[in-house]
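Internal tracking record. Fields below are filled automatically when a chain is submitted to the structure queue. Please do not edit lines marked as system-generated. If the sequence contains nonstandard residues, flag them in the REMARKS field before resubmitting.
Queue: standard
Priority: normal
Entity type: single polypeptide chain
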Amino acid sequence: MYKKCEYNNSVISESKLQKELDTHYRGETGLVVSIMRDMICEGVVKTRHELGVANECLWNLNDWPEDQGFGWSDRMSCEKDIKKTIARERLYQQAEDELVAINKLTEAPSNDDVKKFMDINLKLQGAMA
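SYSTEM-GENERATED OUTPUT FOLLOWS
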């Protein structure tokens, strides 16, 4: 049966995530690193994969003009985006795991199949509510 990479998808300690951040994200600006560090401390980011997802959400900040302020509302908007994206990613991975288990797949299901399965689950949850 298909199995995801445990190295990237396993929950690891905050200290290990901080070390990953320090080791693999050296090229990021202080602003990006600061927000990623806060997301680790708040327990939003729990895996190496989620650290990468958070980083992708913040890529545009690497070009943030230094003379343009970055206020509290800007930061909260970025954090909200990271939380929303990681929650969606966790749902995706859960749906992927369910598809693999149900169908005893030997390969990862296609992105389209996983998204269709997620949509079906959402519709079923809505009907049961």
